[in-house]
Design goal:
The protein is mainly beta and about 230 residues long. Helices cover about 15% and strands about 45% of the residues.
C-alpha cells in the first residue's frame, strides 16, 4: 500500500465513526502540550515483538511484564557507534517493567545488543558490535489512568513515557535518554490499527500502523528513543 493510499484509508476510517469530532478534539487537546517533547525525530525506534505479562498484588495491584524488542538506531548515536552517515544499527533488546496500576508509575530495565549485517544480507543483522544495559522510570499513567480532557473526564490514551540511562559494556559512564512508547489502537469496529502522532502538521494526530511495524501480523508497540 502506498503512502497516499494509507492516508486515504485513514481518512475513510476517521470519517466512518460518529465519535470523530469529539475524539479529534480530545487528541488535539492531548497532543498540543506534547508537540515539543515528542515530535522530534527519534534517534532510535524499537518495536515490541513479544510480551509476557502478569498482574500481581491485591491491595496495590501491579503490572509486571517482560518483552523482546527489535529496531534500529541512527549511526553516530550512543546506540550505534558507527560513523555518521553509515547505515543504522539494529538493536535487539530484552526489557522488563513493574508498573503500579494505582498510579501508572513504575520502573523498567533490561539489556540490549547492537548488531550489524554480516555477509548474509538476506536475513536480519546478527554480527554483534556492542552490548549494554538500561534502566529508568516509566510513566504509564496516560494508558492506565487516562489524561484529563476538556470535558473534565479522564480518557485512556495509548502512550507512555520513560526517563532512563543506558550503559555500554566497556565504556565509562552512563548515557541519559528519554523515550515515548505508542500502543496500537483501533478507532472503530473495522479494527484498523493506529498510533498516536504528535506531528503538528498532522491534523488527525494518528497514523496507521505500517506493514513493517507488525510482528507476524500483530501491530506492535512502538518505542521512540532520544538522547
Amino acid at each position: 500500500m502506498t503512502m497516499k493510499n494509507e492516508e486515504d484509508a485513514m481518512r475513510r476510517d476517521l470519517r466512518r465513526t460518529f465519535l470523530m469530532p469529539a475524539l479529534l478534539a480530545l487528541l488535539a487537546f492531548v497532543a498540543a502540550p506534547l508537540f515539543g517533547a515528542t515530535a522530534l525525530a527519534a534517534d532510535a525506534t524499537l518495536y515490541e515483538l513479544t510480551e509476557n505479562m502478569k498482574l500481581v498484588g491485591k491491595d496495590s495491584p501491579r503490572r509486571r511484564a517482560t518483552s523482546e524488542l527489535m529496531g534500529t538506531a541512527n549511526a553516530g548515536t550512543p546506540l550505534c557507534p558507527m560513523p555518521v552517515g553509515a547505515p543504522p544499527c539494529t538493536i535487539n533488546a530484552t526489557g522488563s517493567d513493574n508498573i503500579s496500576l494505582v498510579t501508572g508509575l513504575g520502573k523498567f530495565g533490561g539489556t540490549f545488543t547492537v548488531v550489524v549485517q554480516d555477509n548474509n544480507t538476506v536475513d536480519s543483522p546478527e554480527f554483534v558490535i556492542a552490548k549494554g544495559k538500561f534502566s529508568g522510570k516509566m510513566d504509564f499513567s496516560p494508558a492506565v489512568l487516562g489524561i484529563l480532557g476538556p470535558d473534565g473526564n479522564r480518557h485512556i490514551t495509548p502512550m507512555g513515557t520513560v526517563v532512563g540511562k543506558m550503559h555500554l559494556d566497556g565504556v565509562r559512564g552512563d548515557v541519559p535518554f528519554t523515550g515515548t512508547f505508542f500502543l496500537p489502537f483501533a478507532l472503530d469496529a473495522s479494527g484498523t490499527a493506529y498510533y498516536l502522532d504528535f506531528n503538528p502538521d498532522n491534523p488527525y494526530h494518528v497514523v496507521p500502523v505500517a506493514d513493517n511495524e507488525r510482528a507476524l501480523g500483530y501491530p506492535t508497540v512502538r518505542f521512540e528513543i532520544n538522547f
